[in-house]
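Quick one: structure tokens for this chain, please?
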Amino acid sequence: MSSHASSELLDAPITDTDFAAGVEAVEAMRVRARPIPRITIQVFCEFAETAAAMQSAVEDRRLAKTHVNIQMGGIQAAVAHFADNPTPNLIIVESSLDRGGMLTELDRLAETCDAGTKVIVVGHLNDVVLYRELLKRGVSEYLVAPVSPLQLMESISNLYTDPETDPIGQVIAFIGAKGGVGSSTICHNVAWTMSEQLKADVVIADLDLAFGTAGLDFNQDPVQGIAEALATPERLDEVLLERLLTKCSDYLSIFAAPAVLDRDYDVSPDSCDIVLDVVRQNVPYAAVDLPHMWTNWTKRILLSADEVVITAVPDLANLRNAKNLLDLLRQHRHHDGPPHLVLNMVNLPRRPEISVKEFCQNLDLKPAAIIEFDAENFGQAANNGQMIEELNKKAKAVQPLRELAMALTHRKDLAQRQQKSPLAPLLEKLKLKR
């Protein structure tokens, strides 16, 4: 339950530590707020600020499947409305009444609620006794105003996520600012690193249906894959998913593209939604390798993904395209962190380049990873069907790829411990001796 700050705290200067803690709290809230299923929500607000926060939440990708109606009038309006109308899956009511008045109105509301309807109350009292009384009456959550859009999304998400089960998996979309910049290579290496470092199941979904390279990069030749799932998405379940996936290691599987040209690929945004929903319900991480083409379904995936990685090389065309992508994402993903920028093939001999500093200043975005041009290691790994770290643990790209994998999975602390631990060299030697 939230609480109001005292006047002394409000007047106190904000330190760097306070600011960092606030940023971490918002980031944690953003991660906990998961996509919400197809439910109906009716909201009854008393104040314009609460209605604005709710409207901002409604426009977020996490509530894209919900049907939300926002009205003014608070809890009294809710009581009057549901006296003659069926109740939705979730009711959110705001009340500035005192403890007794609020409980009385909620008792009246309970008389009109259908079985199974959940209720979130937004109040203006930081009162533990009131909180306990609300829980006794079956209220799902009590928030103290003012509330933020992320608070509302997290609270709604928690109601529809079973705490006894694993959380819904994370979808990470990889796209190149231009063709040939190595987005697929980054996607495959980062996904492999995630699976190896976290010992968690990862699926690579190769959506470049005509020219996908996931099979080649992992030295696999699957007969079936993602095209079959997209053709009949309504048939996809856990059993069929297992049949269509190709196992590459203990924790990594690929949803391979057919990579043939004797058929047409008619992909719909809804088919992509269904397939990725099934994948994320079965594995913690899905790395989506998007082709460099602009369609309604690539746009849908980019806007709905939990994290987005843009790979670019430092030239003018990449700068323009990356800026266009960033502008679109910033316009539609207000409550998400910025995309992760990977500058790839940096310092290519004899090629005029925009400096990393100038490239990033023009985008107003710090790079998540800078990968130097390394034809020998990347070329050999591609020919062998291996990842960079499998081929050469000392390659320059290994560390930035690891750091990117940890950042995408919100495990930066793990990457820092591995990097800074004074015992790391000794442990590595012991591994080699074994």
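The chain has a mean pLDDT of 87.
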